[in-house]
Write the structure tokens for this entry.
Amino acid sequence: MKNKIIKKEAGKTGKTFTGKVVSNKMTNTIVVKLEYKSRHPLYKKIIKKSSKIYAENNLSANEGDMVLVRETRPLSKIKRFTTLEIIKHL
């Protein structure tokens, strides 16, 4: 039996998210806020939740812009995403 190695196309893998830029004060880095809704397990109420991710700012996105980010290899201690496009300018 032969072991088959399946290679994914480089640069096309990883999850993509859309979020709002909260900060661009760091060099080549932006902080993107991802907002989503979930249902409370006991009370069944819809709750807004959010998380912040650090992304590579290769498109010069500014605060308030909506951006599309994609998961990549670790770029630094906390950066794991890169900017694909700016969806909406502020």
Observations:
- The first strand starts at residue 16 and ends at 23.
- DSSP finds no helices and five strands in the chain.
